Fold this protein.
Amino acid sequence: MASRVKKEEKTGKEIAFQDDDHQVVVSQFEEYADATIEIRKLAEKCRDYKDGNQWTGPERETLKKRKQPCITDNKVQDKVNTLLGIEKRQRTDPKAFPRNPSEQDEQAAEAATDALRFVADQNCYKTITRKPAADNLIVEGICYGQVIVEKRKGREPYVCMEHIRQDRGYYDIHSLKDDFSDKRYCGYFTWMDYDEAVENPKWDKEALDASITGQSQAGPDKQLDDKPRWVLSGGKRKRVQIFKHYRIKAGVWHESVWCRGGWLEKEKPCTYKDEYGEPACCIEIQALYRDSDGAPYGDVPRYLDLQDEHNKRRSKMLHLLNAKRIVARKGEFDNINALRDELHKPDGVLEPNGDIAQLRIEDNLREAEGQWRLLQQTDMALSQTGPNAALAGTSGDLSGIAKARDQSAGELPITPLFDALDSWELRMYRQVWCRVRQFWNEEMWVRVTDDEQKVRWVGLNQPITQGDMAAQAAAQNPEFQALPDEEKRMVIAQLAQRPEAREQMLGDDGRPMRKNDIAMMDIDIIIDRGMDTITVQQEEFAQLVEIAKGRPEIPFDTLVEMSQLRATTKKRVMDKLTGANDPMAQQRAQMQQLLEQLNTALLAAKVRRENAGASKDEAAATETGVDASVKIAQFTTPQPQGDGQTAKPASKATVSVN
């Protein structure tokens, strides 16, 4: 397509566009640059105040002529650092929850949680990405981030969570939502050496040759030009401005790479997909506040006037205390300037020409006191805006619960900041999950370091073989569960030796079945946020310890459960107490249970033996009593006489009760 030529209004130079699409993307960036000049000036001023550059050049010259001290007491930086400290305290890890109430989905959600945390740890997300994003939200009022994928030869794709500098990103000026979900285009640019750019084989060298400059595409601009700007005129390195642009075209997100000279990578549908499989923009933007025209701003503009007043009143107060007025007759001193110099010296010498009584030296204590009182009001106003003493925990000597309540009340003014940061972070993690589902297709293992004592590995996309299914079915069989452990191992070994046991199982749709299959996981991601409750936990634990001193019968596991230990540490201690996840402890518990059962059986046998002996003795005693009664009856009963013959004695009766 033939080039289209347009004359640039600012410089008068003619710009050649390769096609209509190239002209559209260039005009979109220039639209942003022209419409946000004042917004970017305010953002740069806020950044300067945070960095301590709070006096303009003309103001410094004026103070120098007055011999007035130029004092900068940087309260803005203190406020920003306090908010960043609170941000660090509130950092938490993402957690995935299943959308269906099944054990399989719960296991998949745990694997998804581990995958998200693995990506965050790989990128050092909390310090390299989240912290500068929070800093941009506080100071400039807008932050950018992107989630992309770097493909590595022989290894799994690397999911990158990157922070984009606030002065390098741009957005649709007609987008009015805080999360910019209604944007039609966005992007970012970077300055790089020409030698580095031409090393990319995909980029057009002629387009790069036409783009060598130190000024932005939109013309000379302090915020958009290459930095540092003082080397633009004398620098010998060739620099080019490269744009990564995203826009909606025909209802679909497209991506491209371009420069002043033309296309470097022509427009195409975005490589990255959303959760529905549609092309998606990988950049997430968040504003803290937006005015009626949609201009984003942060917390720092609230402090600018108070910071100026604080600096200038302190400077004026010191100047008044150091300066003095002289009342004297005209001609009393030969050199007035020399008189001023001597007056401010600790050992200065004054030599009046006339009567010394006509000389009067006046101080400025009243004016200085007025400045001091106004300075107190300024400091009070500064202390009551943004992070206050209650939130910082310095509001007085309070108990744990009272301090926690005080901090909770002091948290209210900064709630919008952390709501905005949480919204941006949640969308970043959702972008991570979309990249993981799209690019992690092979079998892989992720390292999880949620336990400081050991490393845990979680398998993703693990193939399920017929042997695995057979072993799982056998484990659920009651007859298999009744077998001894040795026989169980033999059965599993026999299953594993079969050739068909190594074949992968196929699902109903004909696809290979996999454990923790990322592409099939259906989860929700949340960021659990809550203020630190360590003071309340410490107070409750201290009270519990005091109770335990007076009542030692309280179990130790109750103290552990009520302590402020980390959840993982608390679980590990409880497992040691109960013997969970400890084979030796479980074996000892089984032996103890077996001994108790044996002792119970022996005791029952002893009771039965004693009962049987008692019954036998009772029966013998009864038999003895019956025999004695029979003998007495034989001797006491007269014998009958028969026919004159002597009768034979009767035989002995035998009686037994056994």
User: Anything to note?
Assistant: The radius of gyration is 44 Å. Confidence is low (pLDDT under 50) at residues 530-536, 642-658. The chain has 21 helices and 20 strands.
